[in-house]
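Progress note, project year one: complex with zinc ion.
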Amino acid sequence: MTKNISLNLKCPNCGKSLMDKEFPLNDRPSVKLNIETSHERGTIRLCSIYGCYEHVCDFDLHEGEIARFYCPHCNRELKSNKECDTKNCNAPMAAMNLEVGGKVYICTRKGCTNHFVAFEDLATEVRKFYTEYGF
Ligand SMILES: [Zn+2]
Ligand SMILES: [Zn+2]
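Model obtained:
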C-alpha cells in the first residue's frame, strides 16, 4: 500500500479549517496550528499525510518536550481526555476533527510518533472516509 491519505482537518471548537494551502508540505496543504511549550510559542505546520511525522515549527522544539496546540482561528487548545499509551510517554493527546467526521489524535511529545484516527460512528464514517480519500 503506497497510497498516501491526506487528512482534511478542522477545529473541534470553531469548526474552521486548519489546512494551509499557502504552506504545502509534501505537495499537500499543511495543518497550521499555534504551539506553546514551556519556553516559547509560535506556529507549527504538520504534514497532512496520515502516517507522516514531518513538521515545520518556527522555533526549535527540544526532543522529548511536551507542547500544547491551539487553533489559529479561535485560539482554543486542541486537547483531549486521552493520554499517549506509548511506553514511558503518557503525554496528553491533542485532538482535531476530520472534515468527514471522526477525530485525529496526536501525541504532544516531540519525537513520539503515536497518532491515530478515531470514528464515533464506525460504519458511516469509515465509508465516507474511504469515499473521500479513495482508499
Ligand atoms: Zn478554532
Ligand atoms: Zn507519546
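Helices lie at 122-133.
The chain has one domain: 9-133.
No further modelling is planned for this target in the current period.
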